Protein backbone atom coordinates (compact mmCIF):
# COMPACT_ATOMS: atom_id res chain seq x y z
CA UNK A 1 0.00 0.00 0.00
CA UNK A 2 1.49 3.36 -1.07
CA UNK A 3 1.88 6.22 1.37
CA UNK A 4 -0.27 9.29 0.66
CA UNK A 5 -0.66 12.81 2.02
CA UNK A 6 -4.00 11.74 3.49
CA UNK A 7 -2.33 8.89 5.40
CA UNK A 8 -0.29 11.60 7.15
CA UNK A 9 -3.50 13.34 8.17
CA UNK A 10 -3.99 15.91 5.39
CA UNK A 11 -7.16 15.49 3.33
CA UNK A 12 -6.83 17.52 0.12
CA UNK A 13 -10.32 16.56 -0.98
CA UNK A 14 -11.83 17.98 2.21
CA UNK A 15 -9.88 21.18 1.62
CA UNK A 16 -11.24 21.41 -1.92
CA UNK A 17 -14.76 20.88 -0.64
CA UNK A 18 -14.32 23.65 1.92
CA UNK A 19 -13.13 26.04 -0.80
CA UNK A 20 -16.07 25.07 -2.99
CA UNK A 21 -18.51 25.86 -0.17
CA UNK A 22 -17.11 29.30 0.60
CA UNK A 23 -16.51 30.67 -2.91
CA UNK A 24 -19.99 32.13 -3.32
CA UNK A 25 -19.99 33.44 0.27
CA UNK A 26 -16.75 35.36 -0.23
CA UNK A 27 -17.91 36.76 -3.57
CA UNK A 28 -20.79 38.58 -1.88
CA UNK A 29 -18.23 40.96 -0.33
CA UNK A 30 -16.51 41.91 -3.60
CA UNK A 31 -16.69 45.41 -5.02
CA UNK A 32 -15.59 46.64 -8.44
CA UNK A 33 -11.97 46.91 -7.28
CA UNK A 34 -11.50 43.18 -6.59
CA UNK A 35 -9.74 41.51 -9.53
CA UNK A 36 -9.24 37.93 -8.31
CA UNK A 37 -11.38 35.34 -6.58
CA UNK A 38 -10.56 32.29 -4.48
CA UNK A 39 -8.06 30.01 -6.18
CA UNK A 40 -5.42 32.48 -7.33
CA UNK A 41 -2.02 32.55 -5.68
CA UNK A 42 -2.55 36.08 -4.41
CA UNK A 43 -5.38 38.56 -4.13
CA UNK A 44 -5.44 41.64 -6.35
CA UNK A 45 -7.24 44.87 -5.53
CA UNK A 46 -7.25 47.74 -8.03
CA UNK A 47 -6.54 50.91 -6.09
CA UNK A 48 -6.01 53.14 -9.14
CA UNK A 49 -9.46 54.73 -9.35
CA UNK A 50 -9.98 54.27 -5.63
CA UNK A 51 -7.08 56.58 -4.78
CA UNK A 52 -8.47 59.45 -6.85
CA UNK A 53 -10.46 60.43 -3.76
CA UNK A 54 -7.25 60.90 -1.74
CA UNK A 55 -4.54 63.55 -1.93
CA UNK A 56 -2.01 61.70 0.26
CA UNK A 57 -3.39 58.25 1.13
CA UNK A 58 -1.98 56.27 4.05
CA UNK A 59 -2.55 52.53 4.35
CA UNK A 60 -3.27 51.30 7.87
CA UNK A 61 -2.87 47.57 8.47
CA UNK A 62 -3.36 45.21 11.39
CA UNK A 63 -3.27 41.48 12.00
CA UNK A 64 -4.58 39.52 14.96
CA UNK A 65 -6.37 36.36 16.03
CA UNK A 66 -9.56 35.73 17.95
CA UNK A 67 -7.56 33.95 20.64
CA UNK A 68 -8.93 31.26 22.91
CA UNK A 69 -12.53 32.26 22.22
CA UNK A 70 -12.34 29.64 19.46
CA UNK A 71 -12.39 27.02 22.23
CA UNK A 72 -15.86 28.20 23.22
CA UNK A 73 -16.99 27.87 19.61
CA UNK A 74 -15.63 24.33 19.50
CA UNK A 75 -17.42 23.46 22.75
CA UNK A 76 -20.75 24.74 21.42
CA UNK A 77 -20.33 23.66 17.80
CA UNK A 78 -21.24 27.18 16.64
CA UNK A 79 -18.62 29.02 14.62
CA UNK A 80 -20.23 31.92 12.71
CA UNK A 81 -19.70 34.48 15.47
CA UNK A 82 -15.97 33.75 15.49
CA UNK A 83 -15.79 35.18 11.96
CA UNK A 84 -17.80 38.21 13.03
CA UNK A 85 -15.45 38.59 16.01
CA UNK A 86 -12.37 38.62 13.82
CA UNK A 87 -13.71 41.37 11.57
CA UNK A 88 -15.14 43.48 14.38
CA UNK A 89 -11.90 43.32 16.34
CA UNK A 90 -9.74 44.13 13.31
CA UNK A 91 -11.91 47.08 12.30
CA UNK A 92 -11.63 48.50 15.80
CA UNK A 93 -7.84 48.48 15.59
CA UNK A 94 -7.59 50.53 12.38
CA UNK A 95 -10.54 52.79 13.20
CA UNK A 96 -8.41 53.96 16.13
CA UNK A 97 -6.24 55.76 13.58
CA UNK A 98 -9.15 57.05 11.54
CA UNK A 99 -8.85 54.50 8.73
CA UNK A 100 -11.67 53.24 6.54
CA UNK A 101 -11.58 49.41 6.08
CA UNK A 102 -11.09 48.31 2.46
CA UNK A 103 -9.80 44.71 2.37
CA UNK A 104 -9.59 41.67 4.62
CA UNK A 105 -7.58 38.42 4.48
CA UNK A 106 -8.20 35.40 6.68
CA UNK A 107 -6.11 32.41 7.72
CA UNK A 108 -7.73 29.34 9.25
CA UNK A 109 -5.48 26.58 10.61
CA UNK A 110 -6.83 23.32 11.96
CA UNK A 111 -5.91 19.74 12.76
CA UNK A 112 -8.42 18.43 10.24
CA UNK A 113 -10.50 20.35 7.70
CA UNK A 114 -14.23 20.17 8.38
CA UNK A 115 -15.91 21.91 5.43
CA UNK A 116 -19.09 22.77 7.34
CA UNK A 117 -17.11 24.46 10.15
CA UNK A 118 -14.94 26.38 7.69
CA UNK A 119 -18.00 27.56 5.77
CA UNK A 120 -19.64 28.76 8.97
CA UNK A 121 -16.57 30.76 10.02
CA UNK A 122 -16.25 32.31 6.56
CA UNK A 123 -19.95 33.15 6.53
CA UNK A 124 -19.32 35.22 9.66
CA UNK A 125 -16.27 36.85 8.08
CA UNK A 126 -18.28 37.76 4.99
CA UNK A 127 -21.14 39.19 7.03
CA UNK A 128 -18.70 41.30 9.03
CA UNK A 129 -17.01 42.55 5.87
CA UNK A 130 -20.33 43.51 4.31
CA UNK A 131 -21.26 45.40 7.47
CA UNK A 132 -17.91 47.22 7.32
CA UNK A 133 -18.08 48.05 3.61
CA UNK A 134 -14.93 46.10 2.72
CA UNK A 135 -14.00 43.11 0.58
CA UNK A 136 -12.90 39.67 1.79
CA UNK A 137 -10.23 39.40 -0.89
CA UNK A 138 -8.64 36.08 0.03
CA UNK A 139 -7.42 33.70 2.65
CA UNK A 140 -5.98 30.31 3.44
CA UNK A 141 -7.17 27.08 5.05
CA UNK A 142 -4.27 25.08 6.45
CA UNK A 143 -4.59 21.51 7.69
CA UNK A 144 -1.84 20.73 10.20
CA UNK A 145 -2.35 17.46 12.09
CA UNK A 146 -0.17 17.23 15.16
CA UNK A 147 0.11 21.00 15.53
CA UNK A 148 -3.47 21.50 16.68
CA UNK A 149 -5.42 19.22 19.00
CA UNK A 150 -8.31 17.24 17.53
CA UNK A 151 -11.32 19.43 16.60
CA UNK A 152 -9.40 22.63 17.30
CA UNK A 153 -8.59 25.50 14.95
CA UNK A 154 -7.23 29.03 14.92
CA UNK A 155 -8.43 32.07 13.01
CA UNK A 156 -6.18 34.98 12.07
CA UNK A 157 -7.22 38.07 10.15
CA UNK A 158 -5.31 40.80 8.35
CA UNK A 159 -7.09 44.04 7.58
CA UNK A 160 -6.10 46.98 5.39
CA UNK A 161 -7.63 50.42 5.68
CA UNK A 162 -6.99 53.82 4.19
CA UNK A 163 -6.94 57.36 5.56
CA UNK A 164 -5.90 60.78 4.31
CA UNK A 165 -2.54 61.71 5.84
CA UNK A 166 -3.74 64.95 7.42
CA UNK A 167 -6.72 63.09 8.94
CA UNK A 168 -4.75 60.36 10.71
CA UNK A 169 -5.85 60.21 14.36
CA UNK A 170 -2.84 60.08 16.66
CA UNK A 171 -3.99 61.53 19.98
CA UNK A 172 -1.21 64.11 19.96
CA UNK A 173 -3.71 67.01 20.13
CA UNK A 174 -5.43 65.67 23.25
CA UNK A 175 -5.35 68.25 26.04
CA UNK A 176 -6.59 68.85 29.56
CA UNK A 177 -10.35 69.30 29.66
CA UNK A 178 -11.11 67.00 26.73
CA UNK A 179 -13.96 64.56 27.26
CA UNK A 180 -13.89 60.75 27.01
CA UNK A 181 -16.91 59.18 25.33
CA UNK A 182 -17.34 55.42 25.44
CA UNK A 183 -19.19 53.18 23.00
CA UNK A 184 -20.97 50.37 24.82
CA UNK A 185 -19.76 46.82 24.26
CA UNK A 186 -22.05 43.79 24.21
CA UNK A 187 -19.88 41.51 26.34
CA UNK A 188 -16.31 40.24 26.56
CA UNK A 189 -15.64 40.86 22.84
CA UNK A 190 -12.37 38.93 22.30
CA UNK A 191 -10.67 39.79 25.58
CA UNK A 192 -9.81 37.77 28.65
CA UNK A 193 -11.07 34.39 27.48
CA UNK A 194 -8.30 32.40 29.15
CA UNK A 195 -9.43 33.83 32.49
CA UNK A 196 -13.14 33.58 31.62
CA UNK A 197 -12.83 29.89 30.69
CA UNK A 198 -10.96 29.16 33.92
CA UNK A 199 -13.63 30.93 35.98
CA UNK A 200 -16.73 29.47 34.30
CA UNK A 201 -15.62 25.93 33.53
CA UNK A 202 -13.02 25.16 36.23
CA UNK A 203 -13.93 27.27 39.24
CA UNK A 204 -17.66 27.70 38.61
CA UNK A 205 -18.13 24.19 37.18
CA UNK A 206 -20.53 25.49 34.53
CA UNK A 207 -20.92 24.07 31.03
CA UNK A 208 -21.76 25.93 27.82
CA UNK A 209 -25.38 24.80 28.24
CA UNK A 210 -25.66 26.05 31.84
CA UNK A 211 -28.15 28.83 32.53
CA UNK A 212 -27.34 31.70 34.89
CA UNK A 213 -30.20 34.01 36.01
CA UNK A 214 -28.27 37.14 35.07
CA UNK A 215 -27.86 35.97 31.44
CA UNK A 216 -30.53 36.06 28.76
CA UNK A 217 -29.27 32.75 27.34
CA UNK A 218 -26.83 30.00 28.21
CA UNK A 219 -23.23 30.46 29.30
CA UNK A 220 -22.11 29.44 25.82
CA UNK A 221 -24.39 31.96 24.14
CA UNK A 222 -23.19 34.73 26.43
CA UNK A 223 -19.53 33.94 25.83
CA UNK A 224 -20.02 33.75 22.05
CA UNK A 225 -21.59 37.18 21.59
CA UNK A 226 -19.62 38.69 18.68
CA UNK A 227 -17.32 41.66 19.06
CA UNK A 228 -19.29 44.83 18.34
CA UNK A 229 -18.28 46.37 15.02
CA UNK A 230 -18.00 50.15 15.44
CA UNK A 231 -17.21 50.92 11.78
CA UNK A 232 -20.51 52.54 10.83
CA UNK A 233 -20.84 55.06 13.68
CA UNK A 234 -17.14 55.95 13.75
CA UNK A 235 -16.99 56.54 9.99
CA UNK A 236 -20.25 58.45 10.31
CA UNK A 237 -18.60 60.81 12.79
CA UNK A 238 -15.47 61.22 10.67
CA UNK A 239 -17.40 61.72 7.42
CA UNK A 240 -19.46 64.42 9.17
CA UNK A 241 -16.25 66.30 9.87
CA UNK A 242 -16.50 66.01 13.66
CA UNK A 243 -13.08 66.45 15.25
CA UNK A 244 -12.13 63.22 17.00
CA UNK A 245 -8.80 63.80 18.75
CA UNK A 246 -8.17 60.24 19.83
CA UNK A 247 -9.68 56.75 19.63
CA UNK A 248 -8.79 53.82 21.88
CA UNK A 249 -9.96 50.32 21.04
CA UNK A 250 -10.48 48.59 24.41
CA UNK A 251 -8.89 45.21 23.74
CA UNK A 252 -6.71 42.98 25.92
CA UNK A 253 -5.43 45.14 28.76
CA UNK A 254 -8.76 46.88 29.22
CA UNK A 255 -9.04 50.60 29.87
CA UNK A 256 -5.96 50.62 32.06
CA UNK A 257 -3.62 49.61 29.24
CA UNK A 258 -5.34 50.88 26.09
CA UNK A 259 -6.41 54.45 26.88
CA UNK A 260 -2.84 55.54 27.82
CA UNK A 261 -1.64 54.43 24.35
CA UNK A 262 -3.27 57.52 22.80
CA UNK A 263 -2.60 60.11 25.52
CA UNK A 264 0.24 62.66 25.47
CA UNK A 265 2.75 62.02 28.26
CA UNK A 266 1.51 65.01 30.28
CA UNK A 267 -2.10 63.80 30.33
CA UNK A 268 -4.03 61.09 32.10
CA UNK A 269 -7.59 59.85 31.85
CA UNK A 270 -9.93 60.34 34.78
CA UNK A 271 -12.71 57.75 34.44
CA UNK A 272 -15.99 58.13 36.31
CA UNK A 273 -17.18 54.70 37.41
CA UNK A 274 -20.94 54.29 37.21
CA UNK A 275 -21.25 56.58 34.18
CA UNK A 276 -22.11 53.61 31.98
CA UNK A 277 -23.96 50.33 32.63
CA UNK A 278 -21.66 47.43 33.50
CA UNK A 279 -22.99 44.29 31.84
CA UNK A 280 -24.08 41.31 34.00
CA UNK A 281 -21.31 39.05 32.66
CA UNK A 282 -18.63 41.20 34.30
CA UNK A 283 -20.36 41.05 37.68
CA UNK A 284 -20.74 37.27 37.36
CA UNK A 285 -17.08 36.84 36.40
CA UNK A 286 -15.94 38.91 39.36
CA UNK A 287 -18.18 37.00 41.78
CA UNK A 288 -17.10 33.54 40.61
CA UNK A 289 -13.39 34.22 40.98
CA UNK A 290 -13.27 37.01 43.54
CA UNK A 291 -11.31 39.01 40.95
CA UNK A 292 -10.00 42.33 42.23
CA UNK A 293 -11.49 45.42 40.63
CA UNK A 294 -8.22 46.65 39.15
CA UNK A 295 -7.65 43.24 37.55
CA UNK A 296 -11.14 43.38 36.03
CA UNK A 297 -10.41 46.74 34.42
CA UNK A 298 -7.05 45.50 33.19
CA UNK A 299 -8.40 42.28 31.67
CA UNK A 300 -11.88 43.10 30.36
CA UNK A 301 -13.56 46.01 28.58
CA UNK A 302 -16.11 46.30 31.43
CA UNK A 303 -18.88 47.37 29.07
CA UNK A 304 -16.99 49.94 26.97
CA UNK A 305 -15.53 48.68 23.69
CA UNK A 306 -14.18 51.90 22.22
CA UNK A 307 -13.30 55.31 23.68
CA UNK A 308 -13.33 58.60 21.78
CA UNK A 309 -11.58 61.75 23.02
CA UNK A 310 -13.13 65.05 21.91
CA UNK A 311 -13.15 68.71 22.86
CA UNK A 312 -15.89 69.51 25.38
CA UNK A 313 -17.65 71.67 22.77
CA UNK A 314 -17.99 68.67 20.43
CA UNK A 315 -19.68 66.28 22.85
CA UNK A 316 -23.17 67.27 21.74
CA UNK A 317 -22.28 66.84 18.07
CA UNK A 318 -20.96 63.35 18.69
CA UNK A 319 -24.01 62.25 20.67
CA UNK A 320 -26.39 63.63 18.06
CA UNK A 321 -24.59 61.87 15.20
CA UNK A 322 -24.35 58.56 17.05
CA UNK A 323 -28.09 58.72 17.73
CA UNK A 324 -28.58 58.14 14.00
CA UNK A 325 -27.19 54.62 14.55
CA UNK A 326 -29.89 53.27 16.86
CA UNK A 327 -28.09 50.02 17.77
CA UNK A 328 -25.16 51.88 19.34
CA UNK A 329 -25.01 53.58 22.75
CA UNK A 330 -22.38 56.10 23.78
CA UNK A 331 -21.70 57.50 27.24
CA UNK A 332 -19.68 60.36 28.69
CA UNK A 333 -17.30 58.39 30.91
CA UNK A 334 -14.55 60.79 31.94
CA UNK A 335 -12.16 63.60 31.10
CA UNK A 336 -8.52 64.31 30.44
CA UNK A 337 -6.45 65.94 33.18
CA UNK A 338 -2.81 66.93 33.55
CA UNK A 339 -1.43 64.78 36.32
CA UNK A 340 1.16 62.07 36.85
CA UNK A 341 -0.12 58.57 36.38
CA UNK A 342 -2.11 56.77 33.69
CA UNK A 343 -5.80 56.02 34.27
CA UNK A 344 -7.60 57.18 37.40
CA UNK A 345 -10.99 55.74 38.38
CA UNK A 346 -13.24 58.04 40.39
| CATH architecture annotation name of the largest domain | Alpha-Beta Complex
CATH topology description of the largest domain: Phosphoribosyl-aminoimidazole Synthetase, Chain A, domain 2
Structural class based on helices, strands and sheet pairing: alpha+beta
The biggest sheet, with number of strands, parallel, antiparallel or mixed sense and barrel status, is: 6 strands, mixed
Return residue spans where pLDDT drops below 50 for at least 5 consecutive residues: none
* Count of extended strands: 10
Question: What is the multimeric organization of the chains shown?
Answer: single chain
Distance between the termini: 72 Å
SSE order: HEHHEHEEEHHHEHEHHEHEE
Radius of gyration: 21 Å
Helix share, percent: 25-40%
What is the CATH domain class of the largest domain?
Answer: Alpha Beta
Question: What's the overall average pLDDT, rounded?
Answer: 89
CATH homologous superfamily caption of the largest domain: PurM-like C-terminal domain
| Spatial order of the strands forming the largest sheet | 6-8-5-9-7-10
Task: Write up this protein.
By secondary structure, this protein is an alpha+beta fold. The chain folds into two domains: 162 residues, 60s Ribosomal Protein L30, Chain: A, CATH 3.30.1330.10; 167 residues, Alpha-Beta Complex (Phosphoribosyl-aminoimidazole Synthetase, Chain A, domain 2). The chain is built from eleven helices and ten strands. The strands form two sheets. Strands 6-8-5-9-7-10 form a six-stranded mixed beta sheet. Strands 1-4-2-3 form a four-stranded mixed beta sheet, covered by helices on one side. Strand 2, helix 4 and strand 3 form a beta-alpha-beta unit. It is globular, with a radius of gyration of 21 Å.
Amino acid sequence: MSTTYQSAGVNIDAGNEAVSRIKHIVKTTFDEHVLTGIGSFGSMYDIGSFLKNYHHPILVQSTDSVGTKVKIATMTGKHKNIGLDMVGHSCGDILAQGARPITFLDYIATDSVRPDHIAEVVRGLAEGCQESGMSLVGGEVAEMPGVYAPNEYDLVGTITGIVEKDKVITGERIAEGDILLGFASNGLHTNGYSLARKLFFEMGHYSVTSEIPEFEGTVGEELLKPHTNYTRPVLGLLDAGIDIKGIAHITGGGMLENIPRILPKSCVAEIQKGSWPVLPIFNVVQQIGGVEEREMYRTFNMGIGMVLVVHANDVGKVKMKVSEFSEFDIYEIGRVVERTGQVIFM
